[in-house]
Amino acid sequence: IRVGVLHSNFPETLLTTEQTEKIQSFILEAIVEEQEGPYSPRFYGINRRQGVLILTCENTETAEWLKGKQDSLKPWEEASLRIVPEEEIPRARIATVYLPDSILDTTEKIMKLLKGQNKELSVGEWNVLRRSDEGKSVLLTLAVDCATANKLEKEGPWIGYKFGKVQLRLKKKHQGNIEQPTREEGTTEKSETVTTEKRTAEEMEVEEATKVSEQSVHTLPERSTP
What we know:
This is DUF4780 domain-containing protein. By secondary structure, the protein is an alpha+beta fold. It is built from 5 helices and 12 strands. The longest helix has 17 residues.
């Protein structure tokens, strides 16, 4: 049973690493204070994913105990947090971006450039799902946070990269067709459209990549229920 602790203003406001550490300390202190109480909270693991602290509870009792802490969960002054089932946390959105003259750049360097040139976006929370090298250019498929997706849908899809702008094309929710982002005028690389039905490969990839890229704080192996 997985439960998420997130900022009440999520996805616009994401929890920092420091804040998630304070939340962990608060939960452990609550366990110590209630050691003589009726509950015995136990977990399989804990990790941070795109500004949310995810706790894997061993049983329903632990999940309910944790949810009951929402009103008292104040790990820092003026903390405003929510505790919800994982399925209620908005999923990351899939996006593609075409990056000219980047074939010699590592994916890590590309992401650092995007982060350094777009500080108003939560680039550090993005996950790279796939890289395709096309001529002198690179096409990245990304899983981006909800706040970024909302901002780009309202203000436009163009973001800074090197000495120009590139288009971050978001896959529409429940969209069957995935189109490559528009290329700069004058380029000769071919564009193509991949058509899929129902659950696309990108959707399966974002789910898997999200799990793999979760920043693990402490994990224990899953145990089978007797």
